[in-house]
Known about the structure:
four-stranded mixed β-sheet; 31% strand
Amino acid sequence: MHVHLDAVGGVAGDMFIAAVTDAFPQLREGMLEAIGQAGLPAGIECRFDAHRDHTLTGSRFVVDEARYRATVGHLHHRGEHHHHRHFADIRARLLESDFSPEVKHHALGIFTLLAVAEGRIHGMAAEEVSFHEIGEWDSIADVVGAAWLITALAAESWSIGTLPLGSGFVQTAHGKLPVPVPAVSLLLEGFTFAADGLIGERITPTGAAIVRYLNCAQEADRRPRRLLHNGYGFGTRSFTGLSNVLRVMAFAPLTAEAPAAASEVAVIQFEVDDQTPEDLAIALDRLRSHPAVLDVLQSSVFGKKGRIAAHVQVLADPQGLDAVNRLCFLETTTLGLRHQLVARETLRRDMKVVRVGDQAVRVKVAQRSQSTTAKVESDDTAQLSGFDTRSALRRSAEAESLKDEG
């Protein structure tokens, strides 16, 4: 099964839960039971409400804290209430819970992505991160509920359409932050966004972490599929003229899935012989940061008059070809470039988060025809000193990620 997310209004943890369970209502009872095992205090009620916004009908997932907040106010007056929860505490609770290993794995993966992002923003290790808004009980319920649903669906792949950018500011424990907030911007680097002119936060950190954890593809997949289910999950905000909804569409393949997915990629090539290596390195880094760019390669070649030149090859999403061409001319001294659309096949790959000692490490696991291979994300080893130390971490993380593979 393939599941596609259509972020009409945006993406948030509660919208993800509402949309998936609107498409698969038989999962609601089991998910609510799972959230009940997450240690939420008495007085917090989780429920589903039917909802209509503009012309669409679906549901909302509500974590009602009214009775709990009344109790919290009394405890706060006595000095017994704390607003923040450390990542280490949340992780320990999940590890000690009665959840299945799969639910624990998914929940820890989502929370780890959030902790790593917050740590990078505030210049600290993930272990030291103290969650504010994300540490609230509704966010914990969202992550646990999403983890349970991901386990129950066992989808082979996920995708998402263009994401709404949003605009303005949001008030947080750190003060006013621009939309998208820094954690969302970091988690969704490389994704395609579009601005529709509406003001407000469109993607929450929890929603962004779920999208990143699921490794949602944005490239077009033209293979025919049969639509099985669809559902609509609404958020709490309202927008003029637009339903604040996340749509879920679940598909089944018409034929047996091939080991590799076919698609198209744009290949852009050019040479540079009159730009300093230092400035060209800056230019290529800016090319790599463009959301439509998949990869940038550089090699040395001999040009006219025996000059050593840099040959540059850029792989890009075909839909962003014109924008990437303009960026090549802007950032480099090339006077001309060549581009073409070529067919490509990509292996199915998943991003896993494993723990090696006290460190969370992301590992890309690829499904090959007769084997499964793993590769650690190099950024997660960058803080370690020494080649041997980094190599040992990579070997341990890659071996751990392959334990459950066939």
